[in-house]
UniProtKB/TrEMBL annotation:
GO terms for molecular function: acyltransferase activity, transferring groups other than amino-acyl groups. It comes from Pelagimonas varians. InterPro entries: Acyl_CoA_acyltransferase, Bact_Acetyltransf, GNAT_dom. It holds the Pfam family Acetyltransf_1. Transmembrane segments: none annotated. Residues 1-162 form the N-acetyltransferase domain. Keywords: Acyltransferase, Transferase. This is Ribosomal-protein-alanine N-acetyltransferase.
Length: 164
């Protein structure tokens, strides 16, 4: 079952997010130390101000996807996707595709024109997922982040939600 996360999901959300940071730190912008420093109040604000969906199996959160609509007037036509993370116990079962589909439908329902995301250039599974959902690469950001003293490139991807 996929549904929007609420304040009642705060602890499960935090636990799954930290699990992802520990297992695949290169897939997230924040470090584990930065995430651990986030207060309940800041995470509650994130749950209230962004659109974050969770996938549940037997009432256990096993996947998340976030969508941050543009807040400024000139950015209200688009939203950023991410993070998207699925616990290893639920991988290979279509959870990531289902979460991404929910976000795409929600974006269309909001009247958005496009979705954008950044993905580590070496994350071939995520890139394939996004391409299968209709995202196309429109750029590459060299040294987007520095992880363990190593520069990492991000691919910039976009999905048009209108006929453009």
């Amino acid at each position: 079952m996929i549904r929007p996360l609420t304040i009642d999901d705060l602890e499960a959300y935090r636990a799954l997010w930290l699990d992802g940071l520990r297992r695949v730190p290169d897939a997230f912008l924040l470090t584990e130390v930065e995430a651990l420093a986030l207060t309940d109040i800041s995470l509650i604000a994130k749950l209230q101000n962004e659109r974050i969906w969770g996938s549940f199996a037997q009432d256990r959160l096993n996947g998340i996807v976030a969508m941050q609509p543009g807040r400024l007037e000139r950015l209200r036509h688009m939203a950023d996707i991410g993070p998207l993370y699925v616990h290893p116990s639920a991988q290979g079962q279509g959870v990531a595709q289902a979460l991404l589909s929910v976000a795409i439908v929600a974006a269309r329902d909001m009247g958005l024109l496009q979705l954008e995301l950044c993905v580590d250039a070496t994350n071939t599974r995520a890139i394939a997922l996004y391409q299968a959902a209709g995202f196309v690469q429109f750029g590459r950001r060299p040294r987007s982040v520095i992880v363990n003293c190593r520069p990492r490139d991000d691919l910039l991807m976009l999905k048009a939600l209108d006929a453009a």
